[in-house]
User: Fold these one by one.
Assistant:
Number 1:
Amino acid sequence: MSVAEFLRQRAVDVAVSGSYSLPRWYDCEGKLRSFACRTKRVSPFRMIVDVPVIGKVGERVTSYFQDFGEFQCTISATLKAGFLMELDMTRARRAWMSEKLTWLEKKQKDASVQELRRDARFVPQVSHTVLTLADGSSHPCFIIDVSTAGVAVSSEYDPAIGTPLAVGACVGRVIRKFDYGFAVKFAEKQDRDDLTRLIVRAPLLKSA
């Protein structure tokens, strides 16, 4: 199915954090790499996900989401910063998924939860930014979440702990690595109201 066709179908626009792995991506130890991702639009049959590494149409994907669990999927279309996945599941699980989406849709409209944990980690509306290294080189990355003290990202680039770099305009250092990304601690604590403006940077276009 095409993305345009899916956008005309009944689905829920909801952001649920997760992780995924592609069949051809391995780390230096030969282990299958995982990357962070986030849903943008979901139905009981398919979903659009925002990702740091885009797979190919027809590839099988193993994914896991906090609110949905694990899926075996097939990529049916790609976007600039994501792809459309066809979900393989039983009829019973599709029924459960439908009920879960109805609940999530109601929950995200509940104004009482909008201002909770103001100083905690949050997810910016724009998911992609740029890492800039000390040598001036840059790499695209996916923002998992961010706080005034640091940011968690997922990227094809795999730095060592202690690597100094900038995430957008915020300078920091890699302090921790996990299965599908790494954490950067800012050199200085940031103002929460300025974070999205400072963090989000579009990749520079190369001139012809």
Note: Confidence is low (pLDDT under 50) at residues 113-119, 204-208.
Number 2:
Amino acid sequence: MQAAQDQPQDQAGSDHEPRRGRPRSAAAERAILDAVVELLESGEPLAGLSIERIARTAGVGKATIYRRWSGKEELFVDVLRDIEPADPTVSGTAGLADLRLLLESVRTRGLAQRSSVLLHNVFAQMKSHPKLWAEYQGTVIAPRRVAMLAAVRRAVEAGELRDDLDVELMDDMFLGPMLVRTVHRPESALPDDLVDRVIRVLLQGLAPKPQVNAEIPASARA
């Protein structure tokens, strides 16, 4: 039986200490997350990481890990959350302003994946592990999509976007260019003003501006 309070290392004599439910220790969690990163940075593949190996590297017991995560998939997703740029804090009341923050986070995550060998390798490996990829999609990507769609709806309600168009289509049109640049064209530039340019183009439209004829119509000359 483990100690009532989780520590980065199992302590002797814990069999005689009372259990107090499922206390959470920030130090233990930090040690576990850092252990996974350490193993990955040393070249260990995701498929080769076992709970036993992670626990040994973190200096905790396996039970300490299982009290926090039901399995490796949940743990690995939290590791990714930890090493990726943090999701932005949005107001939840603004429309285009919140949408801009969410799109900017897509850009910064794209930059992070390009500059971090660890992130690049982990994402490449995740796609060959269906359970892990599904866990990441369901617990990380899906909430981000919900937040962005909600921001688009708020922009419509605030009169910042048209109210006669499909909201989900508008959401796709805002997010699409960012995904093309960050995922499908990893060699393309991600400049600081990219989000503002995308929003401006979408708000102004792609149709050519009306041509203004400088000549005075013949009818007006009479």
Note: The longest helix spans residues 130-157.
Number 3:
Amino acid sequence: MAVTDEAIEKIKGMIVSGALRPGDRLPKESELAADLGLSRNSLREAVRALSLIRILDVRQGDGTYVTSLDPQLLLEALSFVVDFHRDDTVLEFLAVRRILEPAATAQACSRISDAELDALGAQLDALGEAPSVEELVACDLEFHRGIVHASGNSVLCSLLDGLSGPTTRARVWRGLTQEDAVSRTLHEHRAILEALRDRDAEAARSWATVHVASVEQWLRSTL
């Protein structure tokens, strides 16, 4: 394992230094192993590991390439790991979301277009005043994804996408068990949208914080 770790670090060093750039094809296995002072077996294991986390792309019959290294691609690994969360860590995921999402919402204020705002409003209008919990949660995910995407920060967008999974079940359970959860969520969505239309970053940040914190507070009260 230590030998494989060394191989991973050496390939990582080539990418970080710029010796290998996004889209570059790696040298032949025998040549690269010799250049790095590695066995072909340890190099092969390192390539396999780096391909799993989307650093490298192994193309059968064509060779191995450095991926685009786009944040969304690299953070797919986060989504995979997050899927293994334990139920008792959901509050921690919500706490991280409470830190990141209001910041992204405030940042979106100066960037979001009128067309994007209209699309968010149309989502809420289509949902109506008495949606099912499943419809509400699906809309909630898309509503916030649209806002975070408008922030213009692809890393933030990918992080919050990855964190949304563990909190989905909590949001559904809240909708089923808390009497005013649906109406509160609709009200908070409208308030966030209004703040975005007013280009009021602090109001948008505050309403987004209230929105995420309400799920967190409800969950704490049930534990």
Note: The chain has a mean pLDDT of 85.
